[in-house]
Sequence to fold (369 residues):
Amino acid sequence: MHFSFWEYNNINSKENCIVIGSGIVGLSTAIEIKKRHPSMPVLVVEKYYPPQGASTKNAGFACFGSVTELIDDLDHMSKQSVIEIVKMRWQGIQLLNERLSSNGISIDFDGGKELFDKNEFVTDKEIKLCNEIMLLATGIENYFTRLTNDDFSSLNAQCLGMHKEGQLDPMVMVETLNNIAIEVGVKFLYGHAVSDINFRSKQVVLNENIKLDFNKLFICTNGFTQSLLPNLEVNPARNHVMITNELDNLQWKGVYHYDKGYYYFRRVGNRILLGGARNFDPSKEDTNSFEFNEKIKTELIRFLNENIAPGMNARPMYWWTGILGVGPSKYPIIKEIEKDCYLGVRLGGMGVAIGSFLGKEVVNLAFDN
Ligand SMILES: Cc1cc2nc3c(=O)[nH]c(=O)nc-3n(C[C@H](O)[C@H](O)[C@H](O)COP(=O)(O)OP(=O)(O)OC[C@H]3O[C@@H](n4cnc5c(N)ncnc54)[C@H](O)[C@@H]3O)c2cc1C
Fold:
């Protein structure tokens, strides 16, 4: 396939800001550039439509960190760093909520709960410490509270409430951001993968050996970044998600976390969405392949039938996988890697919250320098 002269001239410009990837970060980046510089040409290059990154495949949790996740983070980084990361998530969700609500889409802030079986335990001291972190990061007092929860009898050894968590439809989120980007004049080139970047000549190379010039380049490819920058510390991590058949008498609502957030579930209408269990077979899940891991599917079905919906005849009706970008630190990477080339990647498992913030920060970095 070759572009015609007309097609090429319409797409290519030495003035272009090229954004690779049209997930939440790529779209937020493109919108932010236009917000700062309305006349600057912006071209988003994306392999697929719908984009096949995590932004349309995630579970739709708008979350900021549970007590066990924060306690785990404190084992690997300073309290100040944990506060900063939670703050990024919090600011990101405010920005996303503004963008979605100005287009008539709302995030459903029904709250979240962290569940525990009898083998896990968090102390009052740990809850107090996490509440201090949340207060400094979000300004909210007593973010985590102890609750009684009899909805899931095998997971009710303890229950912690997180009253500001929310949920959304990820495809509606991406489509809305896409529409906003088009409205502000962003161009899209779908169905083309960037196979190489020539930093010196300031060109990206597409699979068909088509070369596009750029003025500034933004790489927003998260879990797929190593195919362009193999030495970067962003590792792919696969996650499985299922949605069940329709069920009668589902009483509970909100979003639920279990086992340091490795298992997560919520209602989608009168179905259950359940995902995670990556820690059940970790050595197989550091991949960007979309294939299913039968061991994890079996584990999620067991968890569904034993813990969430025992005796309800719940069955998976839809299965899919998606690819996260993780690394040795939970800090996202926002940096200039070469002159005029910027990275906004490594969002971990809370990209819905942090993604809009990352787009804004990478654009600030590019234009405030
Ligand atoms: C199954 C699953 C469940 C999740 N659940 C949640 C959740 O409930 N809440 C939450 O906050 N987070 C969740 N996450 C994480 C969250 O979805 C991600 O952190 C976030 O979507 C990442 O956004 P992104 O824009 O950085 O990357 P992506 O959405 O992955 O977008 C990257 C895009 O780049 C494109 N691309 C890659 N390489 C190239 C190339 N060479 N050329 C052109 N295009 C390219 C890809 O096609 C892709 O569309 C989940 C992730 C997964 C996988």
In short: Residues 79-101 form the longest helix (23 residues). The helical segments are 5-11, 24-36, 67-76, 79-101, 124-138, 170-183, 294-308, 351-368. The chain has a mean pLDDT of 95. The radius of gyration is 21 Å.
